[in-house]
Amino acid sequence: MQKDISSVLKNLGILAENPAFSIGSETGAAKNATTIDSFSPVDGKIIASVSVATQENYESVVKTAEQAFLFWRHVPAPKRGDIVRQLGDALRLNKEDLGTLVSYEMGKSLQEGLGEVQEMIDICDFAVGLSRQLYGLTMHSERPNHRMYEQWHPLGIVGVISAFNFPVAVWSWNAALALVCGNVCIWKPSSKTPICALACQKIIADVLVANEMPEGICNLLIGNAVGDLLNNDKRIPLVSFTGSTRIGRIVASAVAGRFGRSILELGGNNAIIISKDADLDMSLIGAVFGAVGTAGQRCTSTRRLIIHEAIYDAFKDKLVKAYGQLKIGDPLDQNNHVGPLIDTSAVNMYLKAVEKGKAEGANFIVEGGVLEGGPYASGCYVKPCVAEVENHFEIVQEETFAPILYLIKYKTLEEAISLQNGVPQGLSSAIMTVNLKEAEQFLACSGSDCGIANVNIGTSGAEIGGAFGGEKETGGGRESGSDAWKGYMRRQTNTINYSNTLPLAQGIKFHI
Known about the structure:
Elements (H helix, E strand, L loop, with lengths): L1 H10 L23 E5 L6 E6 L3 H18 L4 H17 L1 H12 L3 H21 L7 E3 L5 E9 L2 E5 L7 H12 L3 E5 L5 H17 L7 E3 L3 H8 L6 E5 L2 H13 L3 E5 L4 E5 L5 H13 L9 E7 L3 H13 L19 H17 L2 E4 L18 E4 L5 H4 L6 E7 L2 H9 L3 E2 L1 E5 L3 H8 L8 E4 L11 E2 L2 E2 L6 E2 L8 E9 L15
Helix pairs in contact: 1-4, 3-5, 3-7, 4-5, 4-7, 5-6
């Protein structure tokens, strides 16, 4: 395994003993900087050590980014789009290696790692088309011989703070759109998955150099202190943050306090309603993948199943049988369904959640636990578990980033929707039903209160064509497709008077 990963690092142009690009510079690591060791939860082995950015590094990168923005904003948007197209092509060439690195450093299955890189490719393709569609509106003026329209301008430096569970895709969602909109980026990745970030920085740096672009268009700064620096820096007009609701509150407060903008993608506590009119086999696939995919460490992971009382016992039996067939182990082995949690801290949170659930009265019909020894020597592998609960339990109201699934029984669809909405988070939701009336009721304004609402699809997994994000304590941000690009630009309304007089709006008369 270690030899294979060494080959992957070599193919991606980064070496464990020479962690270049760790401070947003092609010249290598900063002098006298401290380091972060990246351990794989797959086997507990160290992948590499990377340099942590200092205050001096940060200042240098910001100043370089400011100069790069003065150049980049004048590059025609279709040309910017062509450079993003080249990034997509480079990702295609590196998909297998980068996907393998994502799987090994983060712990998700190889298929999910490859899928994450495919998301990066897809958003690049989307952004290329967008580069010729940064449309404004034309309005009719109430004054004769006047023309009104609106246009969109880039903001400047976009700070991107991403989480460990999607160590590369979330950066690309932000960077691809920000770049075609004329912004430059500073990326602060999770300190739990820095090697994936180094690989992405190498790929985009090569593309930019090949196009003779100046340094500073895409920058990488590693270290927890970087987040606070970005949040409090008036030179950073937009910070896009993906992470917990707890940290999101801090980011939102800091950025708003200086009148900056933030895009917040925070916690999820997602439910699938399984109707008495559902296809139970299809529902089972959506529920199990949603609950155990990425070992329950997706913001869109299925946390709750709200099941109609008429089919509750039958579906519960199916679920228990399916969980008995899950294979837990090395995520690079495609025979396994479930890989490890990111680290032992996550394991401890999982154990505390199980303990708290039992104390509140949860009935675990599939027991959890930590797997130890042999292939589980990293101490990060846990058993996915299932518990019957009440929606008001404190632990059910929280988001636990682990494969714990809660079952709740309902009688009427109105009750089910109320249960589904009855948590602080509002990211993803789904209903499994072949009843058209139920589906439409779920999607109506009185239905799901989440940013994502699906019918006969689980809560986990989203295409880049639609805007991604949620409401309530999920933060209200939108990334990826649709018109999410507007969040990376400033709107300007323009009025042009081509007459020989100066009439005022609203018919106001003013004589001098």
